[in-house]
């Protein structure tokens, strides 16, 4: 049976954007490739690089007008597009802030609704569930969230702290309105078991959840290129912020190079507020020549970067919802050593080591992996990604859509 799917995209197909943008594009392309009708509603006006995947149609949502808030404008645009959305069998949003409008669509029409939860934006206006940027958060509320949002609003860029604070308060409004209609959504797509469990703690109906992982980016499905010989090249890719634990990178490298005969180098790919701190720490530790900070690297160049390194190092503190970088490392046969946060252990499997603790534990994990042979973990990494190929993942989405349609039909019967 052919499915008519309306898909709410976080940007637009072909957008360089975030990992979520690429994941959304892969889903619509793979569903359309299986003969289904897919209309992609683009949250951002498609750029010159936009291209509709074969079998799909692009539509741009009008997000103009007051208030000048990305999430609030998107909410209004979805409500304005209600009649169009109601014409689909299923509407799947890959944007968590669509929850209020998606809940209204479910209440007012027979269209089946699906929401992807790929982080914490449906319960946290900061999207990270880190209270005051210091500790995991297990509850929310207007006063608590407002205080946290205001206290942690950065002011070091061109927008300033006041703008950031107002933006977060706008997202707090969406969180509060979304929670009131969370039970109306027909099905939820959670990227990991950790995401499912977390939202369950916040009262979401987990009996309607399906855990479906990210699709492997085919650009990272390539042979490994390093020789796994000293000097070993470690790699970090991601934002250079405190919650990613990047302040631990240089201490890990220092510990690895304390022992005679051990020779490790580190490449840091990404931008963020702690780049200068990483470079200063490396110089102070006498490791300036062993640390290379590249800044931002285009997505099309990243597969080669991963493949040429011996080990991917992730020192993060926050509970990773999924983390595409782990799939990217595994796809290139690059073993992973990471802190045990969020869903990391479930993704990595035998393709590396997951450790409890800080710099000492991470350094020990790298040494253990080297002693066992990086090659063995590299082979396991390549086998691990079979679970994330389209032939394994896409049928799970189609089954999720069918369950959403069944519940929507039950809603219609009860209402008649």
UniProtKB/TrEMBL annotation:
GO terms for molecular function: glycosyltransferase activity. It comes from the Archaea. Transmembrane segments: none annotated. Residues 227-379 form the Glycosyl transferase family domain. Keywords: Glycosyltransferase, Transferase. InterPro entries: Glyco_trans_1 (IPR001296), Glyco_trans_4-like_N (IPR028098). Residues 18-214 form the Glycosyltransferase subfamily 4-like N-terminal domain. This is Glycosyl transferase family 1. The lineage of its organism: Archaea, Methanobacteriati, Methanobacteriota, Stenosarchaea group, Halobacteria.
């Amino acid at each position: 049976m052919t499915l008519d799917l309306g898909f709410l995209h976080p940007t637009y197909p072909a957008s360089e954007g975030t990992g979520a943008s690429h994941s959304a594009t892969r889903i619509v392309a793979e569903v359309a490739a299986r003969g289904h009708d897919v209309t992609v509603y683009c949250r951002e006006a498609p750029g010159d690089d936009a291209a509709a995947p074969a079998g799909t149609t692009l539509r741009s949502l009008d997000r103009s007008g007051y208030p000048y808030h990305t999430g609030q404008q998107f909410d209004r645009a979805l409500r304005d597009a209600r009649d169009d959305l109601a014409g689909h069998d299923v509407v799947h949003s890959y944007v968590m802030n669509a929850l209020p409008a998606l809940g209204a669509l479910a209440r007012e029409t027979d269209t089946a609704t699906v929401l992807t939860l790929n982080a914490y934006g449906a319960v946290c206006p900061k999207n990270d569930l880190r209270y005051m940027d210091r500790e995991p958060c297990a509850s929310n509320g207007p006063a608590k969230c407002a205080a946290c949002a205001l206290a942690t609003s950065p002011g070091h860029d061109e927008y300033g702290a006041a703008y950031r604070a107002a933006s977060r308060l706008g997202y707090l409004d969406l969180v509060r309105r979304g929670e009131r209609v969370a039970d109306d959504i027909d099905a939820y797509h959670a990227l990991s078991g950790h995401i499912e469990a977390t939202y369950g703690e916040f009262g979401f109906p987990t009996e309607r959840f399906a855990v479906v992982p990210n699709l492997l980016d085919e650009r990272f499905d390539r042979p490994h290129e390093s020789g796994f010989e000293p000097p070993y090249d470690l790699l970090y890719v991601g934002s250079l912020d405190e919650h990613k634990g990047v302040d631990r990178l240089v201490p890990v490298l220092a510990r690895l190079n304390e022992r005679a005969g051990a020779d490790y180098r580190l490449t840091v790919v990404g931008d963020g507020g702690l780049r200068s701190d990483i470079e200063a720490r490396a110089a102070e530790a006498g490791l300036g020549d062993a640390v290379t900070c590249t800044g931002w690297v285009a997505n099309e160049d990243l597969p080669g970067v991963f493949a040429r390194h011996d080990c991917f190092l992730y020192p993060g503190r926050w509970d990773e919802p999924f983390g595409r970088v782990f799939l990217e490392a595994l796809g290139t046969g690059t073993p992973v050593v990471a802190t045990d946060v969020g869903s990391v252990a479930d993704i990595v499997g035998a393709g590396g080591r997951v450790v409890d603790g800080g710099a000492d534990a991470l350094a020990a994990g790298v040494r253990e992996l080297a002693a066992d042979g990086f090659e063995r973990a590299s082979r396991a990494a390549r086998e691990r990604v079979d679970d994330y190929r389209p032939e394994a993942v896409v049928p799970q989405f189609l089954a999720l859509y069918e369950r959403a349609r069944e519940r929507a039909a039950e809603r219609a019967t009860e209402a008649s």
